[in-house]
Amino acid sequence: MLPEWWTVSLVFVKLLVYLGMMGIMGSCAILLLLKDSKRGVAVNAHQSWQLITLSYAFRLSIVGFFSSVAGFFLQTGYMAEQGLTGMFSPFMMEMIWRSQVGTIATIRAVIFVLFGLLAWFLLQKLKRGDGLVSFKVLLGSSVIFLLPLALTFSLTGHASQFVTFGEIQIVIHSLIGLTWVGSLYPLITACKLLNHSDLALIMKRYGNIAIVFVFILVTVGVVMLIQLLDSPSELFFSEYGLAFLSKLFAVALILTLAAGHKLFWVPRLAYDKNVCGKLRKSINFELIIGLIILSLTALLTSALSPNL
Questions:
Q1: Contact (Cβ atoms closer than 8 angstroms) between residue 35 and residue 137
Q2: What is the per-residue pLDDT across 228-251, written as a single tens digit (0 to 9) for each?
Q3: CB-count exposure of residue 275 (10 Å: 0-12, 13-18, 19+)
Q4: Closest CA to 298 of 161, 157, 162, 183
Q5: N or C: which end of the chain has fewer CB within 10 A?
Q6: Measured between alpha carbons, how far is 105 from 222 in angstroms, rounded to an integer?
Q7: Distance between CA atoms of residues 132 and 44, nearest Å
Q8: In this structure, how many other beta carbons lie within 10 angstroms of the beta carbon of residue 220?
Q9: Where are the bilayer-spanning segments (predicted)?
Q10: Residue 296 near residue 247 (C-beta atoms within 8 A)
Q11: 177-199 confidence digits (pLDDT tens)
Q12: Where are the domains of the chain?
């Protein structure tokens, strides 16, 4: 296998891992948001939304597990430099297993399996009509699964260039970013399931919370960028800088869309029934941009370096 194909494969697998992580983070966050709004949402719609959201998280946790395993073997093959057979080199596998790559793959794979089992159990409970998932279960799941997943970012990518404070920054940045993108699909389904007044209640609460976290996300991102680059000229005269500029443009675009939702579409939900469809299309576009941002992040942390 040619070197560039190894790189493409590693970037693609990392993107799939991101999808698994965003499924867990986004679904937990959005279900907590809905659970807190129980009195304002019809029970049937509430149960349907939990069912769809948990199914979405369950499927992405499966994607995340197999991608984590595949990423380990791809890293092994890349380091062995012996073609496809190098992926199963006992010596290289042991070396990668003992490294941070092995630690990260193990932690993520275990979390994906455990969350997948929990999601499957909760799905069966909902399908039997045994009642809604409790707030305590959702909150406990969020703490148990989200934080360890986010902490793995302190061991990978360019986080190793930072001191402890920098590691905290990248954990916060990753947690908020993946949760934001991961919550968009459940919001799209909410536009289909909930009536316009209930949807307005959910979207208003979501927007109020998002303002705080988006501010933190952008602030931390800017600080990390300053730490990574030796000079501003690297943004324009290096492959890493140009890729980062593309990501910044996509971030600016998704922030513009999010602002439009909060300031224009959501206030009209309470009295204009036709807004639901338009809001759903806009969130669809926001999700596409979010996936582009995750793709560029996978590229930046797998194939490019700020120092090249």
A1: no
A2: 777 777 777 778 778 888 888 999
A3: buried
A4: 157
A5: C
A6: 28
A7: 10
A8: 20
A9: 15-35, 56-80, 100-123, 135-156, 168-188, 209-229, 241-264, 285-305
A10: yes
A11: 999 999 999 999 988 887 777 78
A12: 4-301
